[in-house]
Amino acid sequence: MADLTSTFCGITSPNPFWLASAPPTDKEYNVRRAFEAGWGGVVWKTLGEEGPPVVNVNGPRYGAIHGADRRLLGLNNIELITDRPLEVNLEEMTRVKKDFPDRALIASVMVPCDAESWKSIIPRIAETGCDGFELNFGCPHGMAERGMGAAVGQVPEYIEMVTRWCKEATGLPVIVKLTPNITNIILPAEAALRGGADAVSLINTINSITSVNLDSFAPEPMIDGKGTHGGYCGPAVKPIALNMVAEIARNPATANLPISGIGGVTTWRDAAEFLALGASNVQVCTAAMTYGFKIVEEMISGLSQYMDEKGFTSVAEISGRAVPNVTDWQYLNLNHVTKAVINQDDCINCGRCYAACEDTSHQAISMSPDRVFTVMDDECVACNLCVNVCPVEGCITMKTLDKGEVDERTGKPVGDYANWTTHPNNVAAISAE
Ligand SMILES: Cc1cc2nc3c(=O)[nH]c(=O)nc-3n(C[C@H](O)[C@H](O)[C@H](O)COP(=O)(O)O)c2cc1C
Ligand code: SF4
Ligand code: SF4
């Protein structure tokens, strides 16, 4: 079995699977059982300042998007940071860290945006024996209205300033958790780096309204007839998170900044994808809330089996492996030609591919009177819409034409690599160099 030991900005854990700051990490009872189940680390539910704890709503705090099979695809929440007293959390963290010294225990923090608040709480939390801090600049609801969370994370100058305060207050690693509710993730990531961050973690939740009650005419979850936007997470947000992780990993200024990948991780494969795009470890919330702590067993066995099959001896060998293959559109090979192929043995003759291609693509699938569906190579532009709408996995595949082979649609032989920067239709004729 492959060694899954992971080192993230100097913090070692037996595997790269951490629980993200959220209800699964809200208390000792949860975290103990999470560690017993095998999680490599946890980011404790965000701690706030001393004083009366925050107050949560007393009605539903979640909205959801389900697939046709009722599988949870996206979760929306209007929960705030921990609503338990700071002292209680600190005592529990101290006990847990003492009993599980080999696991990573990170303290997530969010206090008002002034130097005194941050500089006084950080050393106090450090006394728990925690391994590092995660600054919550991401919470998009409730706390943002009080000038915290995403209200800080959306202003790069504030990120830099608060990160610097924290670095001045501790020698432990400081991870900056980024909000996806911005237009360009590079700006907050670079600001975190300037402030001295040891790493970034992303994504926090996405501003969202999951549904509207059409009898009460209010967004769900509804509290006494009113709703508000919440934070969206779960499998549905993974593509957004992967892109943001890759953006940071391939940006020269942030390329060496360790990344903790978060957003929709449900299986070992999701985790491996985050690693490949530049993350050094992953954090999980919705999947644990949906299936319980034991899902980490599948993650551990799946990743280690994959590593054994590929001959990888460390998690670090996967990290960033796909980054060189993420490019800008203009560098894609315009001479790479493929064609859809329908496997007639697998086809159930549903006609979905025909409807999709006929009505919204390139009229490249023919339907015979007895419902045999065939791709016409002289019309197929290889968009792969049919592959994606076909209900039978693997029934339609894309075949790559060899160099020199004639593309029946254009009548031209397949040529060498050439991209948009040198294409004759490109009036801008940008140099490929
Ligand atoms: C109910 C709920 C509460 C959350 N609370 C926090 C929090 O206190 N601090 C924080 O940094 N992130 C919080 N998050 C965000 C998660 O840590 C994580 O960034 C997000 O859910 C994306 O991961 P996922 O798709 O695995 O759920 C919360 C998420 C949920 C669903
Ligand atoms: S790949 Fe696109 S163009 Fe080709 S058959 Fe499928 S849907 Fe039609
Ligand atoms: S969508 Fe798939 S199963 Fe349905 S007709 Fe097309 S190839 Fe056959």
UniProtKB/TrEMBL annotation:
Physiological role: Involved in pyrimidine base degradation. Catalyzes physiologically the reduction of uracil to 5,6-dihydrouracil (DHU) by using NADH as a specific cosubstrate. It also catalyzes the reverse reaction and the reduction of thymine to 5,6-dihydrothymine (DHT).
Share what the entry says about its subunit structure, partners included.
Heterotetramer of 2 PreA and 2 PreT subunits.
- Which chemical reaction does it catalyze? 5,6-dihydrouracil + NAD(+) = uracil + NADH + H(+); 5,6-dihydrothymine + NAD(+) = thymine + NADH + H(+)
A GO term for molecular function: metal ion binding
The UniProt entry, under InterPro entries, shows: 4Fe4S_Fe-S-bd, 4Fe4S_Fe_S_CS, Aldolase_TIM, Dihydroorotate_DH_cat
The keyword Metal-binding is annotated on this UniProt entry:
yes
What name does the UniProt record give this protein? dihydrouracil dehydrogenase (NAD(+))
Where is the secretion signal located?
none
Query: What Enzyme Commission number(s) apply to this enzyme?
Result: 1.3.1.1
UniProt KW keywords: Iron, Iron-sulfur, Metal-binding, Oxidoreductase
Q: Which GO terms describe its cellular component?
A: cytoplasm
Q: Which family does it belong to?
A: Belongs to the dihydropyrimidine dehydrogenase family.
